Amino acid sequence: MHATILLTRPMAAAGRLVGYWEKRGVRVCISPLIEPEFEPRAPDLSGIKGLIFTSATAVQAFVNLCPHVQLPAYAVGDATAEAAREAGLDAVSAGGDAEALIRRILADAPEGPLLHVRGRHARGAVAERLSDAGCPTREAVLYTQAEQPLTPQAATLLNGQAPVIVPLFSPRTAEIFSAQHRGAAPILVAAMSAQVAEAVTMEVAKLSVAKQPTMESMLEAIDGLLSAADDLEGH
Protein backbone atom coordinates (compact mmCIF):
# COMPACT_ATOMS: atom_id res chain seq x y z
CA MET A 1 0.00 0.00 0.00
CA HIS A 2 1.74 3.13 -1.21
CA ALA A 3 1.11 6.62 0.13
CA THR A 4 -1.40 8.94 -1.49
CA ILE A 5 -1.06 12.72 -1.63
CA LEU A 6 -4.25 14.50 -0.56
CA LEU A 7 -4.41 17.98 -2.09
CA THR A 8 -6.69 20.37 -0.21
CA ARG A 9 -6.03 23.52 -2.26
CA PRO A 10 -8.73 25.16 -4.40
CA MET A 11 -9.40 23.12 -7.52
CA ALA A 12 -7.54 25.42 -9.92
CA ALA A 13 -4.36 25.38 -7.84
CA ALA A 14 -4.58 21.67 -7.03
CA GLY A 15 -5.09 20.74 -10.66
CA ARG A 16 -1.75 22.29 -11.61
CA LEU A 17 0.05 19.94 -9.20
CA VAL A 18 -1.62 16.68 -10.16
CA GLY A 19 0.41 16.11 -13.31
CA TYR A 20 3.68 16.63 -11.46
CA TRP A 21 2.99 13.76 -9.08
CA GLU A 22 1.18 11.44 -11.47
CA LYS A 23 4.17 11.53 -13.83
CA ARG A 24 6.17 10.10 -10.94
CA GLY A 25 3.66 7.35 -10.31
CA VAL A 26 2.28 8.87 -7.11
CA ARG A 27 -1.44 8.59 -6.48
CA VAL A 28 -3.20 11.92 -5.90
CA CYS A 29 -6.62 12.71 -4.45
CA ILE A 30 -8.08 16.23 -4.72
CA SER A 31 -10.43 17.48 -2.03
CA PRO A 32 -10.46 21.29 -1.87
CA LEU A 33 -11.14 22.59 1.63
CA ILE A 34 -11.59 26.14 0.37
CA GLU A 35 -12.85 27.63 -2.87
CA PRO A 36 -12.82 31.34 -3.76
CA GLU A 37 -16.00 33.39 -4.01
CA PHE A 38 -15.33 36.73 -5.70
CA GLU A 39 -16.78 40.13 -4.87
CA PRO A 40 -18.79 41.77 -7.68
CA ARG A 41 -17.68 45.39 -7.18
CA ALA A 42 -14.38 46.89 -8.28
CA PRO A 43 -12.19 48.50 -5.60
CA ASP A 44 -11.72 52.26 -5.24
CA LEU A 45 -8.42 53.02 -6.98
CA SER A 46 -8.50 56.80 -6.56
CA GLY A 47 -4.97 58.00 -5.86
CA ILE A 48 -3.52 54.48 -5.71
CA LYS A 49 0.09 54.30 -6.95
CA GLY A 50 0.75 50.57 -6.59
CA LEU A 51 -0.74 47.20 -5.67
CA ILE A 52 0.12 44.48 -3.15
CA PHE A 53 -0.89 40.86 -3.68
CA THR A 54 -0.50 38.11 -1.09
CA SER A 55 -1.95 35.31 -3.21
CA ALA A 56 -2.53 34.35 -6.83
CA THR A 57 -6.25 34.30 -6.04
CA ALA A 58 -6.03 37.99 -5.13
CA VAL A 59 -4.49 38.65 -8.54
CA GLN A 60 -7.35 36.80 -10.23
CA ALA A 61 -9.93 38.71 -8.19
CA PHE A 62 -8.37 42.06 -9.09
CA VAL A 63 -7.96 41.32 -12.78
CA ASN A 64 -11.55 40.07 -13.00
CA LEU A 65 -12.77 43.48 -11.84
CA CYS A 66 -10.04 45.77 -13.22
CA PRO A 67 -8.75 44.07 -16.39
CA HIS A 68 -7.22 47.19 -17.94
CA VAL A 69 -5.56 48.77 -14.90
CA GLN A 70 -1.78 49.05 -15.18
CA LEU A 71 -0.08 49.67 -11.84
CA PRO A 72 3.20 48.40 -10.41
CA ALA A 73 2.71 45.56 -7.96
CA TYR A 74 4.41 43.78 -5.10
CA ALA A 75 3.79 40.05 -4.67
CA VAL A 76 4.43 37.96 -1.59
CA GLY A 77 6.20 35.19 -3.52
CA ASP A 78 7.28 33.97 -6.92
CA ALA A 79 4.05 32.14 -7.79
CA THR A 80 1.94 35.21 -7.00
CA ALA A 81 4.33 37.44 -8.96
CA GLU A 82 4.12 35.08 -11.94
CA ALA A 83 0.32 35.20 -11.83
CA ALA A 84 0.45 39.01 -11.78
CA ARG A 85 2.86 39.15 -14.71
CA GLU A 86 0.71 36.73 -16.71
CA ALA A 87 -2.15 39.17 -16.10
CA GLY A 88 -0.06 41.98 -17.58
CA LEU A 89 1.07 43.64 -14.35
CA ASP A 90 4.63 44.72 -13.60
CA ALA A 91 5.19 42.69 -10.42
CA VAL A 92 8.11 42.34 -8.02
CA SER A 93 8.37 39.22 -5.86
CA ALA A 94 9.34 39.49 -2.20
CA GLY A 95 10.32 35.83 -2.41
CA GLY A 96 8.81 34.76 0.88
CA ASP A 97 6.05 35.48 3.36
CA ALA A 98 4.24 38.56 4.68
CA GLU A 99 7.26 39.55 6.77
CA ALA A 100 9.54 39.48 3.72
CA LEU A 101 6.93 41.41 1.74
CA ILE A 102 6.73 44.19 4.33
CA ARG A 103 10.52 44.42 4.57
CA ARG A 104 10.86 44.67 0.78
CA ILE A 105 8.24 47.40 0.44
CA LEU A 106 9.67 49.47 3.29
CA ALA A 107 13.18 49.11 1.85
CA ASP A 108 11.99 50.28 -1.58
CA ALA A 109 9.91 53.11 -0.08
CA PRO A 110 7.58 53.39 -3.10
CA GLU A 111 5.29 56.36 -3.64
CA GLY A 112 1.93 55.73 -2.01
CA PRO A 113 -0.75 55.12 -1.27
CA LEU A 114 -0.65 51.42 -2.08
CA LEU A 115 -3.59 49.02 -2.18
CA HIS A 116 -3.38 45.57 -0.58
CA VAL A 117 -5.75 43.30 -2.50
CA ARG A 118 -6.65 40.37 -0.26
CA GLY A 119 -9.20 37.80 0.80
CA ARG A 120 -11.48 38.04 3.81
CA HIS A 121 -9.41 35.52 5.76
CA ALA A 122 -5.99 37.16 5.88
CA ARG A 123 -3.14 37.31 8.36
CA GLY A 124 -0.16 39.56 8.80
CA ALA A 125 -1.94 42.96 8.98
CA VAL A 126 0.06 44.06 5.94
CA ALA A 127 -1.74 47.35 5.24
CA GLU A 128 -1.86 48.39 8.88
CA ARG A 129 1.82 47.66 9.48
CA LEU A 130 2.95 49.42 6.32
CA SER A 131 0.85 52.48 7.15
CA ASP A 132 2.20 52.56 10.70
CA ALA A 133 5.73 52.45 9.26
CA GLY A 134 5.11 55.45 7.03
CA CYS A 135 3.96 53.79 3.79
CA PRO A 136 0.25 54.66 3.38
CA THR A 137 -1.62 51.51 2.39
CA ARG A 138 -5.31 50.78 1.96
CA GLU A 139 -7.08 47.42 1.71
CA ALA A 140 -9.56 45.90 -0.72
CA VAL A 141 -11.23 42.62 0.24
CA LEU A 142 -12.16 41.12 -3.13
CA TYR A 143 -12.87 37.49 -2.29
CA THR A 144 -13.55 35.01 0.44
CA GLN A 145 -12.34 31.43 0.67
CA ALA A 146 -15.48 29.44 1.43
CA GLU A 147 -14.98 26.27 3.48
CA GLN A 148 -15.69 22.99 1.70
CA PRO A 149 -16.26 19.51 3.19
CA LEU A 150 -13.87 16.66 2.52
CA THR A 151 -15.03 14.63 -0.46
CA PRO A 152 -16.26 11.03 -0.01
CA GLN A 153 -13.09 9.88 -1.80
CA ALA A 154 -10.92 11.76 0.70
CA ALA A 155 -12.93 10.38 3.63
CA THR A 156 -12.42 6.84 2.34
CA LEU A 157 -8.71 7.50 1.96
CA LEU A 158 -8.40 8.82 5.52
CA ASN A 159 -10.26 5.78 6.86
CA GLY A 160 -7.86 3.38 5.16
CA GLN A 161 -4.57 1.93 6.35
CA ALA A 162 -2.12 3.37 3.82
CA PRO A 163 -0.23 6.59 4.68
CA VAL A 164 -1.71 9.87 3.46
CA ILE A 165 0.50 12.89 2.75
CA VAL A 166 -1.32 16.20 3.22
CA PRO A 167 0.37 19.40 1.98
CA LEU A 168 -1.09 22.42 3.77
CA PHE A 169 -0.43 25.87 2.35
CA SER A 170 -2.21 28.19 4.79
CA PRO A 171 -3.13 28.31 8.49
CA ARG A 172 -6.80 28.31 7.54
CA THR A 173 -6.63 25.08 5.55
CA ALA A 174 -4.62 23.55 8.40
CA GLU A 175 -7.37 24.52 10.85
CA ILE A 176 -10.13 23.22 8.57
CA PHE A 177 -8.38 19.92 7.90
CA SER A 178 -7.68 19.39 11.61
CA ALA A 179 -11.36 20.01 12.40
CA GLN A 180 -12.75 17.81 9.62
CA HIS A 181 -10.30 14.91 9.81
CA ARG A 182 -11.66 11.54 10.83
CA GLY A 183 -9.92 8.24 10.28
CA ALA A 184 -7.08 5.93 11.24
CA ALA A 185 -4.72 6.28 8.26
CA PRO A 186 -1.23 7.56 9.16
CA ILE A 187 -1.13 11.28 8.29
CA LEU A 188 2.07 13.00 7.18
CA VAL A 189 1.76 16.78 6.86
CA ALA A 190 3.90 19.14 4.80
CA ALA A 191 3.37 22.69 6.11
CA MET A 192 4.22 25.77 4.05
CA SER A 193 5.48 27.66 7.12
CA ALA A 194 5.80 27.53 10.88
CA GLN A 195 2.50 29.43 11.13
CA VAL A 196 0.78 26.72 9.10
CA ALA A 197 2.36 24.01 11.26
CA GLU A 198 1.10 25.71 14.43
CA ALA A 199 -2.46 25.55 13.07
CA VAL A 200 -2.30 21.74 12.79
CA THR A 201 -4.07 20.62 15.97
CA MET A 202 -4.58 16.93 15.16
CA GLU A 203 -2.19 14.07 15.85
CA VAL A 204 0.01 13.24 12.86
CA ALA A 205 2.63 10.60 12.16
CA LYS A 206 5.07 13.22 10.87
CA LEU A 207 5.07 16.99 10.36
CA SER A 208 7.55 18.60 7.98
CA VAL A 209 7.88 22.38 7.55
CA ALA A 210 9.12 23.73 4.21
CA LYS A 211 12.53 25.41 4.45
CA GLN A 212 11.14 28.42 2.60
CA PRO A 213 7.50 29.43 1.95
CA THR A 214 7.83 28.54 -1.74
CA MET A 215 6.42 25.84 -3.97
CA GLU A 216 9.90 24.46 -4.59
CA SER A 217 10.49 23.99 -0.87
CA MET A 218 7.04 22.43 -0.45
CA LEU A 219 7.80 19.90 -3.17
CA GLU A 220 11.05 19.04 -1.38
CA ALA A 221 9.16 18.58 1.88
CA ILE A 222 6.62 16.31 0.18
CA ASP A 223 9.44 14.27 -1.36
CA GLY A 224 10.84 13.75 2.13
CA LEU A 225 7.45 12.61 3.38
CA LEU A 226 7.11 10.12 0.53
CA SER A 227 10.33 8.51 1.76
CA ALA A 228 9.11 8.64 5.35
CA ALA A 229 5.84 6.99 4.30
CA ASP A 230 7.79 4.13 2.72
CA ASP A 231 9.63 3.70 6.02
CA LEU A 232 6.32 3.60 7.90
CA GLU A 233 5.02 0.86 5.64
CA GLY A 234 8.23 -1.10 6.09
CA HIS A 235 7.74 -1.40 9.85
Helix and strand arrangement:
Blueprint: E1 4-7, H1 11-22, E2 27-30, E3 34-38, E4 50-53, H2 56-65, E5 73-75, H3 78-86, E6 91-93, H4 98-108, E7 114-119, H5 126-132, E8 137-147, H6 152-158, E9 164-168, H7 171-180, E10 187-191, H8 194-198, E11 206-209, H9 215-234
Parallel strand pairs: 1-2, 1-9, 4-5, 4-7, 5-6, 7-8, 9-10, 10-11
Antiparallel strand pairs: 3-8
Helix pairs in contact: 2-3
GO molecular function, one term: uroporphyrinogen-III synthase activity
Domain Tetrapyrrole biosynthesis uroporphyrinogen III synthase: 17-220
InterPro entries: 4pyrrol_syn_uPrphyn_synt_sf (IPR036108), 4pyrrol_synth_uPrphyn_synth (IPR003754)
User: Structural class from helices and strands?
Assistant: alpha/beta
Q: Which architecture name of the largest domain does CATH use?
A: 3-Layer(aba) Sandwich
**Number of domains in the coordinates?**
2
Number of distinct beta strands: 11
Major sheet: size, sense and barrel closure? 6 strands, mixed
Assembly of the depicted chains: single chain
| CATH topology-level name of the largest domain | Rossmann fold
Please give the CATH class of the largest domain. Answer: Alpha Beta
Strand content: 15-25%
Low-confidence stretches: none
- H/E series: EHEEEHEHEHEHEHEHEHEH
Assign an overall shape. Answer: elongated
Cα distance spanning the termini: 13 Å
Task: Name the strands of the widest sheet in spatial order.
Answer: 3-8-7-4-5-6
What Rg do the Cα atoms give? 19 Å
Question: Mean pLDDT, nearest integer?
Answer: 91
Helix content: 25-40%
Number of separate helices? 9
